Amino acid sequence: MLQRQEIMLIRAALQFWYEEMDLDDADMFAIYSGGPRIKPFWRGEDIQRLRQQLIAARLRYAVCQSDATRVKIPRLFDTPAAANQVMADGSDRLGVVLVDAPAG
After folding, report:
1. If you placed Cys at 95, which of 25, 32, 40, 64 could pair as Cys (CB 3.0 to 4.6 Å)?
2. Rounded to a whole number, what is the distance in angstroms from the first to the last CA of the chain?
3. How many CB atoms lie within 10 A of CB 72?
4. For residue range 12-25, what is the model confidence (pLDDT) as tens digits?
5. pTM of the model
């Protein structure tokens, strides 16, 4: 379950990647991403922008239908425990929502 600690780890990893890795090295990207060998299309500014978005974003939780295609209860919760408390049956699923910071 994605929680605040995991968001912090992702932010730290992005900062490390920005500072220490060669952003044009397709082989390095493939090794660390576990994906295909592609030339990454982002620049340092893109990584920093994503990191800042994660810093500003609010983490919320939603109760979803079992197929995870719809939110079952039209409310976002601050903690997974709060969302779990209102689940109606065992088929409900917990959704993780990153809410972007307001523009301004």
Report:
1. 64
2. 30
3. 18
4. 999 998 898 887 78
5. 0.76
